[in-house]
Amino acid sequence: MDGPFVIAAIPQARLTSVEALLDRSVPAFYPHTVNQLSGRQPFAADCQIVRAGPITVADATPGADIRMDFFEGRTGYHVNIPLSGGFRARHRGVDHAAAAQTAVVYRPDGEAVVTDWTAGTHLLAVKIDRAAVERTLDHTLLSQSDMVTSSVDVRAGHGRSWLRLLRQLTTQLGDPDSVLHQPVAAAPFVETVLSGFLMIASPAYREALERPAEPARPAAVRDATDIIEAEAHLPLTTAEIARRCHVSVRTLQEGFRRHLGVAPMAYLRSVRLARAHAELSAADPARHTVGTIARRWGFTT
């Protein structure tokens, strides 16, 4: 994994100026401007922002119609999903009119403008780091050219499932007691969110997942179990382990199923459970509670 797995939560707040909104949104996303389209009403916006590794989500509702212009040189793919209401946008010369439960996907390059975010529209804005997307595509021998930029229906199928994951992530990270504040628990969840994004944004990725995969050789499975045993305390994911073993995610998963009878993440959970039990047995109950140790290893009590 490149660098620390950052987890952060900026709680829901009522913002009463464009400057306050920019102070919150620009550091979390990328440079952009916000302009109120009508001066007849005072500016207001409700906004919560959470981050887990390569995924950042803002849950926001403006109290006035606004326009947002994003600068070039963005560091991630971006998805806007109105949960109610709607907005109009333009990306790479294509106009989009998004109604409730319709996601608009933006690539990191090219023009990106929300031309009219209507007052009262409850929207999830999602940033997915470009490097994480490229690594995941690389694991399936795909590239950015296999991504599509379009509107995606999130009312059914994979889109609805992905939206539920995003809402779970936002809710969980908004709870200071959530186990997802521990990187060991958050990393596999975020890997699922990332894979879900590619399933709705890249038909080629979805087709690659549906193709049969050859199982990894025993040597690769041994290398993977060695990594897990040595680094169970770190935020490991299947994709990270597969990359270090020089195999694809599907190949590693099939190898684990054939040779060990479990998936890589199930094997990792069993190792962490054993470590948690050992730590509990050795711990001083006056200094370390069951809940504290369980959460550190990614479990709830």
Descriptive notes:
The protein is 41% helix and 25% strand. It has ten helices and twelve strands. The chain has a seven-stranded antiparallel sheet, with helices on both faces. It has a five-stranded antiparallel sheet with strand order 2-5-10-7-8, with helices on one face. It is α+β, with helices and mostly antiparallel strands. Helix 6 runs parallel beside helix 9. The mean pLDDT is 91. The protein has two domains: 175 residues, Jelly Rolls (Sandwich), CATH 2.60.120.10; 85 residues, Arc Repressor Mutant, subunit A (Orthogonal Bundle), CATH 1.10.10. The two termini are 28 Å apart.
Name a few traits of the molecule.
301 residues, alpha+beta, Jelly Rolls, Arc Repressor Mutant, subunit A, 7-stranded antiparallel sheet, 10 helices, 25% strand
Strand order of the largest sheet: 1-3-4-11-6-9-12
CATH superfamily of the largest domain: Jelly Rolls
- Using the coordinates above, name the CATH class of the largest domain: Mainly Beta
Compressed to H and E, one letter per element, the order equals EHEEEEEEEEEEHEHHHHHHHH
Major sheet size, sense and barrel closure: 7 strands, antiparallel
- Fraction in helix: 40-55%
Distance between the termini: 28 Å
Mean pLDDT: 91
Give Rg in angstroms. 21 Å
Shape verdict = globular
**In percent terms, what proportion of residues is strand?**
15-25%
Number of domains: 2
H/I helix tally: 10
Shape-level CATH architecture of the largest domain = Sandwich
The CATH topology of the largest domain: Jelly Rolls
